[in-house]
Amino acid sequence: MNLNESQTLTISGQDVVKNGSQHSWEDAKTILKPSTPSKKPPRPENSITIAVSSRVLFNMEKEQQIFEQQGMEEYIKYQVAHETQPFSPGPAFSFVKALEAVNTQLRDLYPESEELFDVVLITNNHAYVGLRLINTINHHQLFIERFCMTGGNSPIGYLKAYNTNLYLSSDPVKVHEALEEGIAAATMFTPEKMTEVSETQLRVAFDGDAVLFSDESEQIYKAHGLDKFFEHEKAHENKPLDHGPLKGFLEVLGKLQKKFYAKGQRMDCPIRTYLVTARSAASSGARALKTLRSWGLEIDEALFLAGAPKGPILEKIRPHIFFDDQMFHVEGAAEMGTVACHVPYGIAQRVPEGKGIKDKEISSIK
Length: 366
What we know:
Blueprint: E1 8-11, E2 14-17, H1 25-32, E3 48-52, H2 54-57, E4 58-59, H3 61-70, H4 72-81, E5 88-89, H5 93-109, E6 117-123, H6 130-139, E7 146-149, H7 156-159, E8 164-169, H8 172-180, E9 185-188, E10 202-206, H9 216-224, H10 226-235, H11 247-261, E11 271-277, H12 281-294, E12 301-304, H13 311-317, E13 321-324, H14 327-335, E14 340-342
Parallel strand pairs: 3-6, 3-8, 6-7, 8-9, 10-11, 10-13, 11-12, 13-14
Antiparallel strand pairs: 1-2, 4-5, 9-14
Helix pairs in contact: 3-4, 9-10, 13-14
């Protein structure tokens, strides 16, 4: 904007006159200075986009009960009446904070790069609820600039438009729809207790079959038993497994890790990945590792449990997020405080039963 000698600029009800007797031009600069952070979200084509639903980012259980028992209109009225009251953190909160911590270090090392995590809030909430969500984000000092509020319609159609690399929701139906669209997705559950996790290092744990890899080997096991599975894996040891639904997410994590390695930070990288699999190391582990190598991907730690429970190992790892295709392992992890996500993919699927986990209703506000 340009101001001539005689021009007056009004900002927030205050008159500012250049070279005049009221507020000085330097005062105007102070008034004009934005109160929002100077950083801006990266362009979608350059970023790693993580789409999260409002009910996994924040705890909205009370509001969900109002919606189910009293309907949409009362739900909206309640949200508007309480819009200055922030939601408490949900199961994805620590994961999102860890993404932001990685971004901070990336910006320090690569100030001009837009290869950063970009968190998008994807919800079928009514736009009236948006003010409370914005107030909550500001209260918790989260950096989330992109919102998608669909007013009761499914948000799945927008995921590709946002170039989504990972979608997290409490709704298994929407997660299944996203996977059908070829988008990495998982149903996130809230453990009854939450283990403390690192604030400086993002830790992500993956199951192997039907998560990083396809379920082809699991199909052999289900159809023919363990002995035939071992025989099959030995015979196909040098044939890479096909990719599973979360392979792409591991790829983008690996790409960011290499940026830290290039700056000499391999040993103290702020991203660490784990393979936590029920496979046995000697009889079927080689194929898993050779598959990752054939893809050009590294995994920081590989834990072959030979069928043992995963919960105790995950309690030791303390990941921000763990992905598995079998609810048995998701439940076991959640019981020990790990934020676990179900990937509804492959032959091992069954309806979540919710032992130790709150079942999520299909008809709900996410």
